[in-house]
Amino acid sequence: MPMNPDVGVLSALIGACKIHGNIELGEQVGKRVIELKLENSGRYVLLANLYTKGGRWEDVANVRRMMNERGVKKVPGFSVNELEGVVNEFIAGGRAHPEIEKIYAKADELLEGMRCVGYVPNSDIEGAIRNLEEEEERENPSYYHSEGLKTRSNHLRWF
Asked: Is 38 within 8 Å of 71 (Cβ atoms)?
């Protein structure tokens, strides 16, 4: 490469290493990226997801510990929609929406229907979320992602 790669290029390389199972190279690049942007939680998550892919749970825990020691906080994802003239904000695992019980009930109903037709969660994603978002207590946290909650809220209006 004729120039030094920036954080974006290096982060893409980590993602490629995860996809292709090159955990060792991804680890080297991941540690370098974290040192370039110490305060960016996304860089730590990339490295933890790489370790998850390799089944290296102790390393996942070490990344989480490193984040805590350095005071790096993962900002929760959120989604926004406008429905019937009202703007709604959904935060992953959030409970602030006035219809949250109905939304979670719809999510549970849809998840159960998916299981009945053979849905099996991606264990790599599930493992990473379980280890990086300890505050989430639901059985399938990726299904309660902010974008998913927004979609379930829309389902309440349509069905």
From this structure: no
The rounded distance, in Å, linking the Cα atoms of 53 and 61 is: 14
How far, in Å, CA of 77 to CA of 151, rounded?
Answer: 14
Q: How far is CA 20 from the centre of its chain?
A: 20
**Spatial distance between the Cα atoms of 79 and 146, rounded to a whole number of angstroms:** 6
Helix (H, G, I), strand (E, B) or coil at 81: strand
pLDDT, one tens digit per residue, over 48-75 is 989 988 889 999 999 999 999 999 988 7
What token pair was written down for 158?
Answer: 């349509």
CA-closest candidate to residue 32, choices 46, 18, 19 = 46
The model's pTM: 0.59
**H-run or E-run covering 60:** helix 57-70
Tokens for 56? 């290296």
Give tens-digit pLDDT for 142-158: 555 666 666 666 656 65
Picking from 154, 159, 119, the residue whose alpha carbon sits closest to that of residue 143 is 119
d(CA 58, CA 147): 30
Dist CA 62 CA 27 (whole Å)? 13
